[in-house]
Amino acid sequence: MADLRLEREFAVAPEALFAWVSDGAKLLQWWGPEGLHVPADQHDLDFTRLGPWFSVMVNGEGQRYKVSGQVTHVKPPQSVGFTWGWHDDDDRRGAESHVMFIVEPCAKGARLILDHRELGDDEMSLRHEEGWTSSLRKLAAELA
């Protein structure tokens, strides 16, 4: 199984960064790669509580990409964990992987560690790395 780990530092307090990776209203502002958006009625992004979540990302041509899972742990302001599974065109959920956002204090302010495990193979890991890297650029722009 391939795993992915990305780290970014931001000039904000750890509590503020944790809000950006857990609160649905803030998540919507950066969730999904550049060029994709999540319509207001096409998500249940709330990583402040345990339980199910989902989002539908839509690109400029109207193509839809649904992903869902379960929030497995919430430990403010340090970490949130959730399962992740893409849906196919018939809304069948595929293989499940696990994501954790870890927030740590650092000299700049706060460090975000994105840990995405059990991605299957190296190709799947690379595709997720591209997607998460793009999403994190959106987060960095929001926090600039």
TrEMBL record:
Tree of life domain: Bacteria
Pfam families tied to this protein: AHSA1
Domain Activator of Hsp90 ATPase homologue 1/2-like C-terminal: 12-143
Family of the protein in this entry: Belongs to the AHA1 family.
Protein name as catalogued: SRPBCC domain-containing protein
